[in-house]
Design goal:
This protein is of the alpha/beta class and 222 residues long. It has 9 helices and 8 strands. The protein binds 2'-deoxycytidine-5'-monophosphate.
């Protein structure tokens, strides 16, 4: 059977991971969240006191990190030096660490093979920032998933509050704007829509409608 690859890119809080995960389940593809890899590198640097303003220190630490993506009952888990860090990488301080390590070219190069291997062995929906532009430039389907910043911040804020966090909406919006800026202004693989990607704006859509939109785009292009 021919393998299909779907690249979904977009800014933070566009709902990429939840929408992509649900779409993958419906289409019977595996789902790969590439942000988890950058988060795991960020976690390692954070734990080991690496200076986040020093790209060469970040690059040097790569030699001590072995990352693996394992599929457990079809769900992606991320292992760092054999430890399952899938939960810890979601902490807000690790979001900032991931954003700090992700512009470093050596980090991006080190993670490229892992991501491409998955698409070579599975039909996959892969989400990130540079999947359609760098990781899988020949993906069968490319989608740029986005929404207005205030709406993305509100969704993220609701999620964090539901988990018991006492952040304010302004803090979340500020963090999101900073991460958007970092992601789209870095020199290596900045967040940008691939020329051949379909733009999908979910500002006015609920979750179900967003999943349907993504599945329809995939079916049309397959
Ligand atoms: O999608 P996320 O919030 O889990 O991503 C964490 C960080 O990693 C974010 O700052 C952007 C970066 N990232 C990236 O540079 N390239 C990717 N393909 C995925 C994530």
């Amino acid at each position: 059977m021919r393998l299909i690859s779907v690249a979904i890119d977009g800014p933070v809080g566009a709902g990429k991971s939840t929408i992509a995960r649900a779409a993958a389940e419906r289409m019977n593809f595996i789902y790969c969240d590439t942000g988890a890899l950058y988060r795991a590198v960020g976690l390692f640097c954070h734990r080991n006191g690496v200076d986040m303003h020093d790209p060469s220190e970040i690059a040097m630490s790569l030699g001590n990190i072995k990352l693996e993506i394992r599929l457990i009952n079809g769900v992606q888990r991320i292992f760092m030096n054999s430890e399952d860090v899938s939960e810890e990488i979601r902490l807000p301080k690790i979001s900032m660490a991931a954003s700090a390590v992700s512009p470093v070219p050596e980090v991006r190069a080190a993670l490229l093979g892992l991501q491409r291997d998955i698409a070579e062995t599975h039909s996959v929906i892969m989400d990130g920032r540079d999947i359609g532009t760098v990781v899988l430039p020949n993906a069968d389907v490319k989608i740029f998933l986005t929404a207005k910043p205030e709406i993305r911040a509100k969704r993220r804020y609701d999620e964090l509050v539901a988990k018991g966090s006492d952040v304010t909406f302004e803090e979340v919006l500020d963090d999101l704007n900073k991460r958007d800026y970092n992601d789209s202004h870095r020199g290596t693989a900045p967040l940008k829509q691939a020329a051949d990607a379909v733009r999908a704006d979910t500002s006015e859509l609920d979750f179900e409608q967003s999943v349907e939109l993504v599945c329809n785009i995939i079916k049309e292009r397959m």
